Amino acid sequence: GMASRTRCFAHIINLVAKSFIAFFFRKPRKKVVEIAGDAVQPIIEEDDNTDLDNDEAISEEADATSDATSNDDGREMHDNAVIKTFEGKAILIMEQEDIIIEESECRIALGIFPRISGLACRIHDITTLKEKFNKLIEDDEEFSGNTRTLAQRVPTHWNSDLDCLSAHIYFQPIIEQLTGNSNNNLSGFHLSEEQWKLAQQVEEVLLLFQRFTELFSKQDVPLVVDALPELENLKTSLEWARDDTDAADVIRVGAQAALLVLDKYSVFTSDCEVYQVAMGIPLH
């Protein structure tokens, strides 16, 4: 029963992180099939973001995400349904506090990850671009570290979003030179000044999840007594992000969505005796 039921902490963190990140990705359009006689034709249903179809980077990333998750065992579909539900609830809750994501800010947010992910793929796949990227690094004395590549995004792993974003921010001067050169045909992957600023705020929030991810990356399985304090710290940090008046509205609403998901799968209640016993809390 509920008194003995525990939840997978890693899955909780994955859902919470994705709930925040969801505000920075266009939702893939639904793919259905239409059967006409003996022919089966794929049909792409329209979504609420059809006005973004002219943005090549956003469209490509949405399709890539859809393809990467189309053959899973159904968990990704379940997770996306949960995320979509709490995304809407977060928007309504924050609207009551006069925190509203304007259309202009939404466009800025939706363009960040598709551009950084698309550029990373092109530099990785196109030899001439990779050579130009490496040459720019070699000629810049500020880059003396061992990092020489842009991390690529894996749609089913949220931490790859952080890796991809952090690498992009680290190489910002190099990337601006690369995308600013018309001869490279990379203008579609150029980030505006507003997007760079928002990207830094996104990175700060995603870094909140890193400690928990590192905890579960260890060879030894972490104990409940180790994981629970980290969850509590995460909740507090997300509350700070939500209430930060200097942060962009999309950051604050995204943090609220993450908090709602964390509360849904909360282990901070007295429903499960396992957690109370592990933490040395007397049972009532």
Low-confidence stretches: 31-46
Count of helix runs: 12
The SSE order reads HEEHHHHHHHHHHH
Give the helix proportion (percent range). 55-70%
The strand count comes to 2
What's the alpha carbon Rg, rounded to whole Å?
A: 21 Å
Order of strands, main sheet, comes to 1-2
Structural class of the secondary structure composition? Answer: mainly alpha
Q: Identify the overall geometry.
A: globular
Global mean pLDDT = 79
Intertermini distance: 17 Å
β-strand amount? under 5%
Largest sheet: 2 strands, antiparallel
Structure characterization notes:
This protein has a two-stranded antiparallel ribbon. Strand 1 and strand 2 form a beta hairpin. It is built from twelve helices and two strands; from the N terminus they run αββααααααααααα. About 6% of the residues have low confidence. It is 61% helix and 4% strand. With 284 residues, it is mainly alpha-helical. The longest helix has 25 residues.
Summarize the structure.
This protein is 61% helix and 4% strand.
Protein topology:
Blueprint: H1 9-21, E1 31-36, E2 39-44, H2 56-69, H3 75-95, H4 103-110, H5 112-125, H6 127-139, H7 158-170, H8 172-180, H9 193-217, H10 224-243, H11 249-264, H12 273-278
Antiparallel strand pairs: 1-2
